[in-house]
Predict the structure of Flagellar motor switch protein FliN.
Amino acid sequence: MANEDENSGDVGLQNLDDGSSRSPDLAPKEDGQVRSAQELEPVFDVPVRVQAVLGKSTLEVSQLLKLAPGAVVELDRKVGEAIDIYVNNRLVARGEVVLVEDHLGVTMTEIIKLDGGAN
């Protein structure tokens, strides 16, 4: 199961990768200098695919065809276990499902650091 966000508006992001008090509108450059949010503005409107994966299951086609409303599909995760958050099919974080008013949401609890050679 996955939930997608089609970048339907402005999203307030908080820097979760370290405990610094750096402003959330600043990002480090490769050379260690700080880049302002204004320098990143050209990419603000680039759509990205966000998926929150609750778990996975393997079914045979015959089992899939037998599913009906109310059927339960067992996933490979336990209740309360962290979910995976993918951006453009790349695992970027783990988190928890939360209720925001009458909508489901995701809170990121762990940022997955990319390896230097990963693309």
User: Anything to note?
Assistant: Residues 46-119 form a domain with the Surface presentation of antigens (SPOA) fold (CATH 2.30.330.10).
